[in-house]
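step=predict obj=Endolytic peptidoglycan transglycosylase RlpA n=123
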Amino acid sequence: MKRLLGLLALSSLLAGCASGLIDPKGYDETGTASYYGAQHHGKRTASGEPFNQNALTAAHRRLPFGTQVKVTNLDNDRSVVVRINDRGPHTRGRLIDLSRKAAEQLRMLGSGTARVRVQALNN
């Protein structure tokens, strides 16, 4: 009986996570980006792969893993394409968390955050 209850709890948890995903087709949002600190380098992401601060990756709350998005810094018009491989950001009011490499390309390392446009690309 305990095993059955455990399986039911796990399946409803997984179903709840999957139902929160959105269709990336036509996704286009504006918001605040931040980036992961070096203390996360090598730790597992929600997708299961190790976080690499030197890769062009990002965390998003609801886009499916593997989605490629173009992130544009609205202050300087610099853009980078990243792949979603983690969940987050976990800070209220943030849209996306970028790897250090992506943040570097957007020239937002000094400020730590930037106003960005995030557009899903057709994969």
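step=describe
The chain is about 20% helix and 30% strand.
step=end
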